[in-house]
Design a protein that fits this description.
The chain is an alpha+beta fold. The protein has helices at 10-23, 73-81, 115-124, 146-154, 159-168, 181-190, 213-220; strands at residues 5-7, 31-35, 40-45, 48-53, 59-60, 65-66, 71-72, 95-99, 104-110, 130-136, 198-201, 206-208. A hairpin with a 5-residue loop joins β4 (48-53) and β5.
């Protein structure tokens, strides 16, 4: 059972905003709620979660735990804020790989030069009955050549095959064409994706980093 909350009055909202503006000028607050059975207000600012005490003299950022229900309220809220509606993903900009009947869905934002992306691909090999949408998302600051390699993948006659080759041997024939890479990077920035690999499941759950196939399979569901 999750901690309940309720909306605050306009007066409380104004006072909290005023207090927070002293420590973080220009902070854009999206929502403020009062947590039930506590002296804390929860403040949502983008994907940032802050807590203000009832005296409105103290603010902190960190994990707030509901001891009675054994729930990390901050983690739970963060997961909600980081959800990405699967239907909002630009499917036409993805490399599509169908395994088995393809009834389950998984989207991955990946960099062709990212070592953990390559490790993730080895985990994905054992999955079945899933359609994987791979979005080319080069992290230029870490991998300067990744845009060129991502371009070669997208412009290959068989993108899925080229991606598989890039993840295994890395030897790709250079190619040039119009690509959706810039659009993908812009989309990623808008939804807060800043690392690879990042997985998006059909329920909107976002999972950054590489996790074992068993965990991925469980998150995919039946």
């Amino acid at each position: 059972m999750a901690q309940a909350s309720w909306s605050v009055t306009p007066q409380e909202t104004a006072r909290i905003a005023s207090q927070l503006n002293q420590v973080s000028p220009g902070l854009k607050i999206d929502k403020i709620t009062k947590l039930e059975k506590s002296d804390f207000y929860e403040v949502i600012a983008g994907r940032t979660i802050l807590y203000v005490d009832s005296s409105m003299h103290y603010v902190f950022q960190g994990n707030l735990i509901d001891i009675d229900n054994k729930i990390n309220l901050t983690e739970k809220r963060s997961e909600e804020l980081n959800k990405i509606e699967f239907s909002s993903l630009p499917v036409a900009d993805a490399i599509v790989t169908v395994k088995g009947n393809g009834k389950r869905k998984l989207a991955i934002f990946s960099d062709p030069d990212c070592p953990y992306c390559k490790k993730l691909e080895t985990e994905l090999a054992s999955l079945t009955d899933v359609t994987i949408y791979t979005y080319l998302f080069p992290i230029i600051s870490l991998h300067p050549n990744s845009v060129d390699r991502a371009t070669s993948v997208w412009c290959a006659p068989d993108r899925a095959k080229a991606w598989s080759i890039a993840m295994k041997s890395g030897d790709l024939a250079k190619a040039q064409c119009n690509t959706p890479i810039a659009r993908t990077i812009d989309f990623g920035k808008k939804v807060g994706i800043n690392a690879t690999p990042t997985m998006i499941f059909s329920n909107g759950k976002r999972v950054p980093g590489m996790i074992p196939a068993e965990q991925i399979d469980k998150l995919l569901g039946s």
